[in-house]
C-alpha cells in the first residue's frame, strides 16, 4: 500500500498528517510512504527528517495518486484532481459545513472518512482527533489570554508589593475547557468554571477550580446519551445569564469553549456583560468558528471593546502545529490500522462501528446518513 501525505493548502493551516515517527512505523510494517515536498515544514518537520524515517519526497501530483491519502483539512480542488478512483482519503473533513467539497470528493470515486465522526467510544480513543486537538486548543487559549493580558497570572509577593493572582473563568468544560482550567491553574490563576452537564462539576473540582452553574432540574438532564450538551431552554438561558452577569465583572480572563454538536454555538456572554468587565480583561472565544460564545467576537481579530479584549481564533491549534500534528498523525495512524489487514492489504470491515460512523463517501456518492440533504 502507498500512503500519501499532502501539504495543506487552506490558508493558515500549519499542521500535517504524518510525522517522522508515524512514517517510521509504516515503513517498518512494509508500507510505502510518499510525502509532498515541504508538507511538514510549517510544523517543523523537514523533508530530511521524513527521508531519514524512510519516506520518499514527491510532487503534489504524485502524493495525490497514493492508495491512502492522509490530510488535515478537507481536500480542495487542486488536491482532488490527482486522486485515484477507489483510493481512500482521510481528513478532518468538516463534513457538515463543507458540503460542496464533499460532493466533489464523492464524484472522484474515493472512499473518504471524516476523522471528526470517529465515535467517542473507548476503543476509538486513540483515534479521537477532536479530543487530541481540543486538548491543545484549551492549553493554547490560556497562553493566548496570558499574552494579551497586561498583568501577571500568578500571585507574587515582592519587596515592592504584592501582585494579585488573575481570576480566570472557563465556560464550557469539555476536553478544551478542562485543559484550559488545568493550564490556568498551573500559571497560578484562581479559576472558576461552568457547564450545563452535571458530570463536569466533579471534574472541575478535581482540578482545583470552583464550579458555578444554575443547578436546576433541567441541568440534571442536560447531558445526552452521547455525552454531549443539549440546547437549553429560554428559561434556563435567562437564569444562566443572570449568574454570568453577577460573576463576570469580577473576572480578569474568560475562556469560552461551549459547543452543541451540529448547531451554532450558544451565546454565553452578551455585550452588556462584556461591558461590565474591567478594562484590561481578556476573553478568548474558542467557539468563534461556530459563531462564537461571546457577542462581538470576530474570527482571528483582537476586538477592543472599551478596553476589554475579545479574541476568537478560528484554528488555534495551528499556533502549536508540531504537537498538534504529532497527536493528529497518531490518531490517523490508529485509524489506518483499521483499514489494513495482517497481510498489509487494504481490507476494511465496513461493519466496524468506527468505520461505519466515519465513512462519508463511497462508490461516487455521499453515503453518511447525516449528510443526505
Ligand atoms: P464540546 O466541544 O461539544 O462542548 C464543550 C463543552 O461545552 C461541553 O462540555 C458542553 O457541555 C458545554 N456546553 C454546551 N452548551 C453549553 C451552555 N449553554 N453553557 C455552558 N456549557 C455548555 O465537548 P467535547 O469536549 O467534545 O466533549 C463532549 C463529551 O464527550 C463530554 O461528555 C466528554 O467527556 C466526552 N468525551 C468522551 C471521550 C471518550 O470517552 N472517548 C473523549 C472525549 C470526550
UniProtKB/TrEMBL annotation:
Question: In what residue span(s) does the Alanine dehydrogenase/pyridine nucleotide transhydrogenase N-terminal domain sit?
Answer: 4-137
Q: Does the keyword Repeat apply?
A: no
Does the keyword ATP-binding feature in the UniProt annotation?
no
Stored InterPro entries: Ala_DH/PNT_CS2 (IPR008143), AlaDH/PNT_N (IPR007886), AlaDH/PNT_NAD(H)-bd (IPR007698), NAD(P)-bd_dom_sf (IPR036291)
Q: Which Gene3D superfamilies does this chain map to?
A: NAD(P)-binding Rossmann-like Domain (3.40.50.720)
Q: Which domain of life is it from?
A: Bacteria
Pfam families found in the cross-reference section: AlaDh_PNT_C (PF01262), AlaDh_PNT_N (PF05222)
User: What catalytic activity does the UniProt entry give for this protein?
Assistant: NAD(+) + NADPH + H(+)(in) = NADH + NADP(+) + H(+)(out)
Q: Which residues form the Alanine dehydrogenase/pyridine nucleotide transhydrogenase NAD(H)-binding domain?
A: 146-312
GO MF: oxidoreductase activity
Enzyme class, UniProt record, top EC level: translocase
Keyword terms, alphabetized: NAD, NADP, Nucleotide-binding, Oxidoreductase, Translocase
Output the SUPFAM superfamilies linked to this UniProt entry.
Formate/glycerate dehydrogenase catalytic domain-like, NAD(P)-binding Rossmann-fold domains
Q: What does this protein's UniProt record list under function?
A: The transhydrogenation between NADH and NADP is coupled to respiration and ATP hydrolysis and functions as a proton pump across the membrane.
UniProt xrefs under PANTHER family: NAD(P) TRANSHYDROGENASE (PTHR10160), PROTON-TRANSLOCATING NAD(P)(+) TRANSHYDROGENASE (PTHR10160:SF19)
Q: What's the family?
A: Belongs to the AlaDH/PNT family.
**Identification of the protein by name:** proton-translocating NAD(P)(+) transhydrogenase
What is the species listed in this Swiss-Prot or TrEMBL entry? Asticcacaulis aquaticus
